[in-house]
Specification:
Largest sheet: 7 strands, mixed
Number of strands: 9
CATH superfamily of the largest domain: 2-enoyl-CoA Hydratase, Chain A, domain 1
Helix content: 25-40%
Number of domains: 2
Pfam families: Carboxyl_trans
Function: Component of the acetyl coenzyme A carboxylase (ACC) complex. Biotin carboxylase (BC) catalyzes the carboxylation of biotin on its carrier protein (BCCP) and then the CO(2) group is transferred by the transcarboxylase to acetyl-CoA to form malonyl-CoA.
Distance between the termini: 73 Å
Strand order of the largest sheet: 3-4-5-6-7-8-9
EC number: 2.1.3.15
Shape: globular
Family: Belongs to the AccD/PCCB family.
Mean pLDDT: 91
Radius of gyration: 22 Å
CATH topology of the largest domain: 2-enoyl-CoA Hydratase, Chain A, domain 1
Low-confidence stretches: none
Number of helices: 10
Protein name: Acetyl-coenzyme A carboxylase carboxyl transferase subunit beta
Structural class: alpha/beta
Length: 281
């Protein structure tokens, strides 16, 4: 009845004058559909407090989680891909790189930084899926190599946060060369007696899984992350059989001996800190 009273009083709002709710104020869980404020979702480390679904997050969010007070020093931030193969599909590779850089604010699919984790100097190389699916090209391989050099120079622990669809097809063989390059640099890290922690997030697939993602002194993952070489659809079509429930999730991979443990995001810093302290002691 209040609506009718308001209309009689001449208090009405036309459609064109109605204000839209600003975007980004609310978050809806893609799994259980629970709606919470974006602020509360961020405070809970982008994890649903009802079903524990871990949303994909980028390098900046991981840096804020791991580094003390969110402080770090990034290096090689301006390193960007060239186009030695002159690759062209629906658009030039160089045009796609520029468009993705403008859209994401990133220069490539990985960022490298040095900071402290509970007072322990650590170098982290964190991949960003938003940049061409976190694909591994020459820049990714080069930045990982340089990050390892930084860790050796500082005599500190090194961690890679993997989040990738695999090798970058636009760089063909140059991309595949990064598998050997990063693996070789990790051998130098091991020779220096320094720990390498491999942290696998959703998704970690293709050439990344076939190289540095599975070479950690400790391999850890987030709950429910897709981890594998070929995707489930490709595997199913290749073998011609239905796949087990939970195939290629981090829980499935842990059960089959390819991971050391799975850790909830709110416990990440404490668990990684404990591992670094163990190795460095």
């Amino acid at each position: 009845m209040v609506w009718f009273k308001r209309e009689k009083e001449g208090i009405t709002t036309s459609t064109k004058d109605k204000k839209e709710t600003p975007e980004g104020l609310w978050h809806k869980c893609p799994k259980c559909k629970t709606v919470v404020t974006a602020e509360d979702h961020a405070k809970n480390f982008y994890v649903c407090d009802r079903c524990s679904n871990h949303d994909r997050i980028g390098s900046e969010e991981y840096f804020q989680i791991f580094f003390d007070e969110g402080k770090y020093k990034e290096f090689d931030a301006k390193l960007s891909s060239g186009d030695p193969l002159k690759f062209t599909d629906t658009k030039k590779y160089t045009d796609r790189i520029k468009a993705t850089q403008a859209k994401t604010g990133l220069t490539d699919a990985i960022r490298c930084a040095k900071g402290d984790i509970d007072g322990q100097p650590t170098v982290i190389a964190a991949m960003d899926f938003a940049f061409i699916g976190g694909s591994m090209g020459s820049v990714v391989g080069e930045k990982i190599a340089r990050a390892i050099d930084q860790a050796i120079k500082a005599k500190c622990a090194f961690m890679i946060i993997s989040k990738s669809g695999g090798a970058r097809m636009m760089e063909a063989g140059l991309s595949l060369m990064q598998l050997a390059k990063t693996s070789g640099k990790l051998t130098q890290l091991a020779d220096a007696g320094l720990p390498y922690i491999s942290f696998l997030t959703d998704p970690t697939t293709g050439g990344v899984t076939a190289s540095f993602a599975m070479l950690g002194d400790i391999n850890i993952a987030e709950p429910g992350a897709l981890i594998g070489f070929a995707g489930p659809r490709v595997v199913k079509e290749t073998i011609g059989r239905d796949l087990p429930d939970g195939f290629q999730t981090s829980e499935f991979v842990l059960e089959h001996g390819f991971l050391d443990y799975i850790v909830e995001r709110q416990n990440l810093k404490a668990e990684v800190s404990k591992s670094i302290r163990l190795f460095m002691s």
